[in-house]
Predict the 3D structure of the following.
Amino acid sequence: MLFPGRFWSSSSSGLTRTELLFFAGILLILAALGFGPINDHLKKKRINTAVERARTINTLLSQYATDNNGVYPVGEGTPAAGKSEGVARNLLENNYTPDASVFAVGSTPTYGGKASDFSDLAAANISWDFTAGATATTGITTAASDYLPVLYTTGESVDYTSSLILSPSGKGPFGHEGIVAAYKGGSALFIPAKSDEKEIPPAFISSNFKDGGAYTQIRP
């Protein structure tokens, strides 16, 4: 006669309960050791993707300006003029890119709409703020300094009259980790926040920036 309880006991399998707990602990330690490098790899991948997308959008903005008398888009002709989703729609509707996912990075949900004119593109699908001229509906021009940040991950507040330093809100797609920014000259990079102060360092804007123009932040 078989006794199920004894048949499936740990001792009959050759391992005592203490041994099983020991091996389970070893597995947990190994898993914890592997989690750090994996997490770092995924974080680096997310940041690299965002930098590449910033560089891509920067190129699209420049192409748009070349075709529109040297003026960058601000959402003109869309219901979202002066907002980030309006800038995105200018690029999408005019066939500078067919891919709306380029406008979402980090924690931002990717656009999943079906409208042929991208009218269902929402602010929630946009990771970027853009730089406008004197008002949010006035585009910057190709005459602006190459050191001017043209786009950067959203969530922060920019004061264009005092060295363009970002306030440390942590509300962007990378939280308090930092921001991704692209500049009119074509460069794009990730700027990490100061780990002790959770703020964006002055490296957001180069000391070579001498442009005295009036600029405004375009947000989603």
Q: What stands out?
A: The CA atoms of residues 42 and 117 lie 33 Å apart. Residues 16-218 form one domain. Strands lie at 128-132, 149-153, 178-183, 188-192, 216-218.
